[in-house]
Structure formats: C-alpha cells, structure tokens
C-alpha cells in the first residue's frame, strides 16, 4: 500500500521539525502558577477569590447624560422657582415645548436656521436671543436621555455656538444709542458738489 499525500506530508514535517518540540513536552514544562500547587482542579474552581466591595469615587464622564426625569434630579431642582424666559417669541415657543422636542432628526438645526431668517428680517426684536439660546442649551443638557434625544449633545453645542454668534453680531440697545449720538451715520451718501 502506498502512503497518501497527508501521510507523506506528516512524515516530511516530522523530519523537518526536531522531536524536542513535541506538544506533550511543552505542556509538561508549562507552569501556570506556583500558588495552586497541591490543589485539585475542583478546589480551584469552587473557591472564587475574595471580592473587594469598597466604594470608590467615580470620575465625571463628559458624555454623561443627566436623568432629569428621575426623582433625585427632580427633587433637587424643585426649589427653583419659575424662571424668566429670554429670547424672541420663537425661542420661547421652543422652550415651552422642550419636553417633546426631539433632536435626533436634526430639528435643532432647522430651529437655528429658521431663527436666523427671523433675526435678519427684524434684528431689533432679538436682543435677548443669545441668552435664550444659551438657556435652551442648558435645558437640553439637563433633560433625561431618550431614543429620540440622541443628538442632545450636538444640539447643546450648536445652540451655544449660535448664542455666541448672536451675542457677537447684535449689540445692545445702549451701545447703539451711544454710537449713534457720538458719530455720524455711516449710511449717508456724500456726493461732491456739482458746479
């Protein structure tokens, strides 16, 4: 009978590899731990190591979403009285509907762009909108997590950025009055006299 291909390969492999590297030899020289000498496998399996049950301080996680709906959160915030709403009517409407306001579909971006259109049409009515966006960001940060609120952290960042942008572009009414009384209007068109 002739040897098969597999048998020939095994014979060739055994000739190439020294006999010292046999699996049995390797397992016999293997040491796992000197602490388990004299113990049977059953004793090691049945006696788990003691567990340290001490409380440890936890580091704050920046991605942690507060559970604003829990009893702990609601009891600590119950002492807050009715706060004043800032911003235009559009932002106040969003604030009043914030409990049902989803952010997963990018609704916050639509709110920002809609507000920009309203702002550009009548800037005088939006002097407190920077504070309004900042308050909205804070309220989103504090509310409990739900599946339709997965993008709350992105909405918080976008609302804060919009607040900074509005604060930088719209000056307060007192600054406008001071500037208008001290300087000539920059909108005047001066034409040279015609002779």
Give the C-alpha Rg: 36 Å
Order of helices and strands: HHHHHHHHH
> Roughly what fraction of the amino acids lie in strands?
under 5%
Mean of pLDDT:
70
Major beta-sheet overview: none
The oligomeric state is single chain
Region (Disordered): 61-80
Biased composition (Low complexity): 63-79
Keywords:
mainly alpha, elongated, 195 residues
Structure summarized in a few sentences:
The chain is mainly alpha-helical and 195 residues long. It has helices at 5-16, 23-29, 41-46, 71-76, 89-96, 107-121, 129-142, 152-169, 173-182. Residues 70-81 have low confidence and may be disordered.
Molecular structure report:
There is one protein chain. Helix 5 (89-96) runs parallel beside helix 7 (129-142) and helix 7 (129-142) packs antiparallel against helix 8 (152-169). The chain is an all-alpha fold and 195 residues long. It has a domain at 86-172. The chain is elongated and about 115 Å long. The protein contains nine helices and no strands. Residues 61-80 are annotated as: Disordered. Residues 63-79 have a biased composition (Low complexity).
Ordered list of secondary-structure elements with their pairings:
Elements: H1 5-16, H2 23-29, H3 41-46, H4 71-76, H5 89-96, H6 107-121, H7 129-142, H8 152-169, H9 173-182
Helix pairs in contact: 5-7, 7-8
């Amino acid at each position: 009978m002739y040897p098969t291909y597999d048998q020939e390969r095994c014979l060739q492999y055994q000739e190439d590899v020294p006999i010292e590297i046999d699996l049995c030899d390797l397992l016999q020289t293997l040491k796992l731990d000197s602490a388990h000498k004299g113990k049977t496998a059953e004793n090691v399996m049945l006696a788990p190591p003691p567990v340290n049950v001490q409380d440890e301080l936890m580091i704050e996680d920046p991605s942690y979403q507060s559970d604003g709906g829990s009893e702990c959160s609601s009891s600590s915030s119950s002492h807050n009285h009715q706060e004043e709403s800032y911003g235009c009517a559009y932002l106040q409407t969003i604030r009043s509907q914030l409990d049902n306001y989803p952010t997963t579909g990018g609704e916050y971006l639509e709110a920002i762009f809609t507000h920009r259109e309203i702002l550009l049409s009548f800037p005088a009515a939006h002097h407190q909108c920077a504070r309004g966006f900042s308050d909205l960001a804070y309220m989103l940060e504090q509310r409990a997590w739900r599946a339709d609120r997965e993008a709350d952290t992105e909405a918080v960042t976008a609302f804060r950025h919009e607040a900074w942008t509005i604060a930088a572009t719209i000056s307060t009414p007192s600054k406008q009055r001071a500037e208008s009384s001290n300087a000539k209007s920059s909108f005047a068109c001066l034409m040279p006299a015609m002779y």
